[in-house]
Every structure is written in structure tokens, then in C-alpha cells.
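## Example record

The block below lists the input lines for one assembly entry, exactly as stored, with component labels intact.
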Amino acid sequence: MAVGAVDEAQLRDLIPGVLAALVHRGADFATAEDAVQEALMRAFETWGTRSAEYPDDPKGWLITTAWRRFIDLTRSDIARRRRESVVSDEPPPGPAASVDDTLHLYFLCAHPSLTAPSAVALTLRAVGGLTTRQIAQAYLVPESTMAQRISRAKRVVGDVRLDEPGDLRTVLKVLYLVFNEGYGGDVDLAAEAIRLARQLAASTQDEEVAGLLALFLLHHARRPARTRADGSLVPLADQDRSLWRRDMIAEGVAVLQAALARDRLGEYQAQAAIAALHGDAQTADETDWPQIVEWYDELVRLTDSPVVRLNRAVAVGEADGPQAGLAALAALDPTLPRYTASAAYLHERAGDIATAAELYVAAAERAQNVAERNHLTLRAATLRRSVQGERG
Amino acid sequence: MAKYLFLKHYRGAPASVNNVPMDQWTPDEIDAHIQYMEDFAARLKDSGEYVDSQALAAEGAWVRYDGEGRPPVTDGPFAETKDLIAGFMIIDVASYQRAVELAGELSAAPGAGGRPIHEWLEVRPFMGAPTSITE
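Predicted C-alpha cells for the full assembly:
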């Protein structure tokens, strides 16, 4: 969506700075956030139209408009007497909001007192500048439900001091959720997560922030090849690699290498390294599986996650042969998500087609989404037909 | 307008005419089935009769309150004999006749051999809001 000469995403890049400026000048977070959202709506409605030229200083315009709206909201509030003492009509002079103020907004929206869905919603609105309606559509819930979720979240963090030290890891988890579990609607949540991760990476030197941004870019680069026009899944090995976004892969690799050079490894950098090795392979056969297994070993060390061990077992199957993969799998809990699908794949690679077909059927019954279920059912049917073909 | 729920069963419905389970179909038959289901939903969206549809996982459990201060009791996984819903579609249509017509179309989705499954679907009217004019 274009607003005059600037697009919506560019305009929304200004939002954290605008909100930070209001909070810096004494506004409470919850009211300031409403005021900023309304200023943003005004910008969308009026900029570049006949009634209002595109301002020379968009951020200054947004701060002034949001501040005035904040005053109005405060005055109409029941607590006006108490609050009027701290505000005046014009933004008071003083130090501008700093990069740290923006960072604190991220911390606040991902505060540990919030549940994951609330943190996601608040981040998308207060830092991302999305409207409640856009967020509701993206997560397939009624707008009134999302409005409640956001206003409750604002109440929960209302008493948190903005200079309280925050934990970047909670912020990264929230962005990871936005990227990984964005469903659809008008807003591309994966692109939104990348935008926010970029913004965050500009505010901090943290290696894991860079690692997460690299991870997003490297996965997003493969998106055009990941599904067919009908929505069905294309496994990594079968993807048309000419559809991969080479520019995004190059950027992801560059961001990752700069982070790795600082020698403070974390799980997002390790995940990004695996994605980079896939991105690097011109064909599936050229994939450097031994190095991918090494990165999975690092990930196991960093996270001790059973899901990582499962992915490692599949990588071992590629690097050292399916029997080695099945041996690694045998040490894991069979109730893990995708365990049966992984076992089916490794048996298929080992040439035990009948067992693989049965396991694909069982895996389809445990699939967690319809696209995956269809894919696994089709694998089972394809293998059965090849077995019958040999017999017949 | 009246809303209806179509319920599709993993088990518990009367047996379909073409009752071969999906894992024994050919890949082409599976593709044709998926395409039919997508086309059906797309047609209802075009005609302004579609509300929602969702698929449900086969796993689940019974859950009930177990008294003050106790965690809820769970009973699962489900017994093999339990009626099991596979998914639903909600439509908003002019009449019961239209709902039946559409359920019939959905039940004609192709299965093994490319022939219609003739699957039994449960069709349930929503309880509506009280009307403004009652006399």
C-alpha cells in the first residue's frame, strides 16, 4: 500500500521511535500507544492527498500529531487531574528518544509476564504499527478478541518501568513465533518479522539478533519454491532451486558471517548456519551433510532439544547413510512430533519401501496440518504403487 | 439466511458406498480428491455461501472437572469405538434444501478409482438468534 511517496512498511518503521519519543516525554505506554496508532491512521488517510502534502519530516509530524492526540486522550480520561500536571500542549524540549528507548519497547512488548499470543499481538501493534484488524485477520480470530488481547496485554505491562533491564531472548522468541506461525491474511507476517528483526539488529550488536535475522532471510529466500500453486508442500530436496531468492540468501549469509566472526555462538546462529549450507547447495546432491551434522551437534549442545536431536538423526541419515540415521533415531522418543515421518523417510532411503509406506500412513494420521497430511498420504500412495508395479 | 454445519467423520458415520481408505488410493486419485475439495470451497466462497471450514487431528481426549482444587480429569486417547469428527464446514444458505444440495455435492468427492465416495455427512442447522417479528 503506498501512502503518497512512501510505502506502508517504511512509514511503520518510524513507529517505535515515535512511541519511544512520547514515552520519553512522560506519556504512559498504554495511552501513548493508542495515540501513536491514531496518528498513523491519520497519516495513511491524509498524506499525499489534496488536503495534506507529504510532510518534510514524517517522524516529526507523527510525534507532534501523536502527542496532541495523547493530550486529548489524557484530558478525556477520568484521571485527568492527576495527569494534567505532567503534560502540556506542545512536546516539551529535552533529549530525543534514543536507540535504547526503542529497544526498551521491544522488551516491554515481549515482557515475561505476557503469554506468547499476547506478546506477539502487542509487538505487532506497538512496535510493528499494524492495526488490530490486520493482526486479527492474520491470526484468524475475531477483531474484538484481538482488541481485548492487546488491551489486556497493555494493562499487564502498564506498571513495568521502561528502564527496567530486559532480556533479548524473550524478544527473539516472539519474533521467531511471528515468522514461523504467521498464517495469512493481507499482512505477510514473515516479511513483518524480517522487518522487525532488521530494526532490532540496527539497535543492538547482539550476535543472536543477527543470527535470527539471518535465519529468517535464509528461510524466506526458499519460500517461492516451498509450495506449489495449489498450496501443496514441496520438500527441500525436490524444490526448484532457481526459484530461491539469491539476493536474500547472500544477505543472510553476510549477516551470519559477521555474527559468527564475533565468536559468541547461540542457537539462532547455529540454525542459520544450517539454513546457509542448504542455501549454498546448487542441487540437493551437493548439500554438505557432514557439516550440517556438525552444526546439529552444536545445536544439541546449546539447546538439548529433542526436536533438534530428531532433525540431527535425519541429517545423519544423509551424511552417513540411512542405517546410521535409523540408529540415531532409535535413541529418541517415538512420540516426538514428526518422529514417524522421519522414520518413514529413512526407511524409504534404506530401500525398505513396504515399511516406509506403512510408516507414511501412520505419520499422516499424526500430521499437524493438512498440507503435511496430504503430502505424507501421497508419499505412502506413491511408494505402494511402486511396490505393486514391481510385483505386477 | 440460515447457517448449517457439515460434519465429516473419521469413524462413526455409516459406511460410504466407495469405502476404500485413502491410503490405498493412487497418488492421482488423492490429488483429484484434494482438488475437488478445494474447488468446492472456492465455489461456495464465490457464491457468498461459505463461512468457515477446518480439519481436526485424529488425536484428542475427554476432559472433565474433578472438583475444587483438583486438576481436570482427562481420559484419552479415544477408544477405537468412539465416533470421531474429522472436520467441519459451515455454510450460510437460503434454505435447508440448498444445504442438502451442497452436502450432496461434497459427498460426491472422488475416491478410489476416481468414483464418488458417497460419504455420509452430518448436516446440522445452527440455532439462530430470536427473530424481530414473532407474531
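The beta strands of chain B are 2-11, 50-55, 62-64, 73-75, 84-93, 122-125. Chain B has one domain: 2-125.
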